[in-house]
Amino acid sequence: MERKKPKFNMLQNTIFMISTAWKSCNQMVLVLCLLLAALFVANNLLGLFIAPRIIAAVEDNVSMGQLLRIILLFSGGLLLVDVIESYAKSNTFIRRIVVRTIVLGMINDKIGNTSYPNTEEQDFRKMYDRARRSCQSNETAAEDIWNTFTDIIKNIAGFTIYIIVLANFTPWVLALVLATTVTGFFINKHINGWGYRNKDEEAKYIQHVRYISEKARDTTLAKDIRLFGMRDWLTDMYNSTLRLYENFTGRGQRVYIWADIVDVVLTFVRNGVAYLYLIGLVINGNLSAAQFLLYFMAISGFTLWISGILGGFAKLHRESLEISSIREFIEYPEPFRFENGEPIMPDNAKGYKLELKDVNFRYHGAEADTLKNINLTINAGEKLAIVGLNGAGKTTLVKMLCGLYDPREGEVLLNGENIKKFNRQDYYKHFSTVFQDFSIVNTSIIENIAQCVSGWDMDKAKLAAEKAGLAEKIEAMPKGYETALGKEIFEDGTNLSGGEMQRLMLARALYKDAPIIVLDEPTAALDPIAESEIYSQYHELTGGRTSIYISHRLASTRFCDRVIYVENGEIIEEGTHDALLKLGGRYAELFEIQSHYYREETE
Fold first, then answer.
1. Secondary structure letter of residue 412 according to DSSP
2. Do 193 and 74 have their domain in common?
């Protein structure tokens, strides 16, 4: 499979990381990279010269006092460099985490604010997963790239200094050292690149193992695992996937052993030739013992600097690919306008009329339209019910009205203006919604109602909970509205029932107090008595605001001003509850089936 070429190159991604650190006032992370590189080279040079200098002093028959001073001078230098290096490392570690956290914040901002259709795109989700993996630990590219910068700088500096030290050395020996080092690097790079070339296969096994592990630990499946005897099935799936992964790693180890063999052979040739050549110079009287040690250590170090430079840039290239995946995700195109859209703030004192004009909509990758030729006007203050069988397109229609989707053809209008021109975030502020699928965060009840960590209006939250029929339940809890939901984080957390959770979502929608209310099956998890209570308060809950109500229970629609019946993505019937019953069409037929069922239950 051909791999897609990254959008950004290594230089562009390097500039991106440096500019991110600079703009976030973390310039010291750049200074510390240079400082650490300089300290490493200084440490290496002190280590290079200490033994030859001591041997030279012994050969020159210096006094014991002079010899001790030389040893203390080098030892003190090494100690000082080590102390400064330790201090610099501890400081740069925190600063690198800060920069990674800023990049992670960019990813979170994108996933939290992106256009809703993007969240349903497979490519977008894959990009998000790759971007998140590139920031999830200290070893990932968004943080480790600073270590790579430091390594490249120190290897280039060390290489330059060692070239100066070996300037008068025989060129053909240096050429041999350079040739064997470069050859070994590229052979090892190709062999060790087996893992990178097969990373998609490895990711598949890891993903499967992680998925099965997560499902086995998922408390929501605890009942099913026990009652349906799923433990052995999950264990077999886990073990079979783990065996595939073990086979994969075994194949890798058989490949990697060749890299070790090549490295041993080339190192033997390189060091063996250099060692024999230097011994020949010593035997012929052209080289002292101190010079022999200095040159041999310099040649070995010279090899490391070359390998370091090549390895550093190879590593930077790999990390650049990960940084590129982060940037491609952050810059993923947005079909909606946000900051560049026209601002529009909600006003509860103002009426809002919604319109769908000649709307057709098709999900990405689908072969047919989900909504077809929809023309619908919802007047300001009107209470509209949308009914139909499962899969008719009711929720899609509501999401279209809420601005979560744009039509493939046609227009969505708010008070006669196309919503595409508005800042979509501002447009969302006009809606208080309760959808079938909702989110609960493991935090306090008040935070879940107010959707903020502080600055909430407690009186307003209590009123919303009272209208939703949840106030009595909350106030009976030991901590009241400060009670934590969920047990994943809080030991004293509590879990609400399905009906209570739905009431909590209704309270959240009422707290938002937007001018347009959307309720998608808001009573599906409630018992008939609780459902009846909600219906009796429906006018009070919605007030004089525009409201849209989806339900499978047709008896609930009598509280609405108008009902539309949706089938196969089209509006086929429209009118009041009584008018549709008199019409004797699909609505009346479905109502009769439901009422017959309830009559049988009562009997």
1. E
2. yes
DSSP state letter for 243: H
Q: CA-CA distance, 500 to 443, in Å (whole number)?
A: 16
Q: Which helix (H) or strand (E) holds 417?
A: strand 417-418
Q: Per the structure, how many domains does the chain have? A: 3
Cβ atoms 142, 170 nearer than 8 A: no
On whether residue 445 sits in a domain, the answer given is yes
Q: What is the CATH number of the domain that holds 480?
A: 3.40.50.300
| Domain range enclosing 369 | 352-430+516-603
CA neighbor of 434 nearest in space, from 526, 570, 572, 560:
526
Query: CA nearest 513: which of 436, 449, 560, 423?
Result: 449
Q: In terms of pTM, does the model score above 0.85?
A: no
Q: What is the DSSP letter of 5?
A: P
Token pair, residue 120, equals 């349903």
Would you give the distance in Å from CA 321 to the centre of its chain?
Answer: 16
Give the distance from CA 260 to its chain's centroid.
36
Q: How far apart are CA 149 and CA 33, in angstroms?
A: 7
DSSP states along 98-144: HHHHHHHHHHHHHHHHS-HHHHT-HHHHHHHHHHHHTTSSTTSHHHH
> Tens digit of pLDDT for each residue in 542-553?
777 899 988 777
The interaxial angle of helices 141-165 and 64-113, nearest 10 deg, is 150
Pair (505, 543) in one structural domain: no
Looking at residue 92, its amino acid is T
Q: Do residues 415 and 487 share a domain?
A: no
Residue 426 lies in a domain: yes
Amino acid at 478: P
Residue 329: both structure tokens together: 């995700």
For residue 536, what pLDDT is reported?
63
Which pair of structure tokens corresponds to residue 165? 């030290």
For residues 191, 195, 201, 203, the Cα torsion angle rounded to the nearest 10 degrees is: -170
Q: For residue 207, is it within any domain?
A: no
Which three-class secondary structure state does DSSP give residue 8?
Answer: coil
pLDDT (tens digit per residue) in 348-388:
888 899 999 999 999 988 889 999 999 999 999 999 999 98
Q: Do 506 and 527 fall within a single domain? A: no
Domain-located, residue 226: no
Q: Which residue has the higher pLDDT, 231 or 169?
A: 231
Consecutive H or E run containing 563: strand 562-567
Beta bridge partners of 25: none
Most distant CA pair in the chain: distance in Å? Answer: 120
Are residues 120 and 183 part of one domain? yes
Cβ atoms within 10 Å of 93's Cβ, excluding its own: 15
Domain end point (choices 480, 513, 546): 513
One DSSP character per residue, 319-370 reads HHHHHHHHHHHHT---SS-STTSBP----TTS---EEEEEEEE--TT-SS-S
Q: How far apart are CA 479 and CA 464, in angstroms?
A: 18
Cα gap 10→225, rounded to integer Å? 49
Q: Which of 265, 298, 330 is the last residue of a domain?
A: 330
* Cα torsion 101, 106, 110, 113: sign: positive
CA 475 to chain centroid: 37
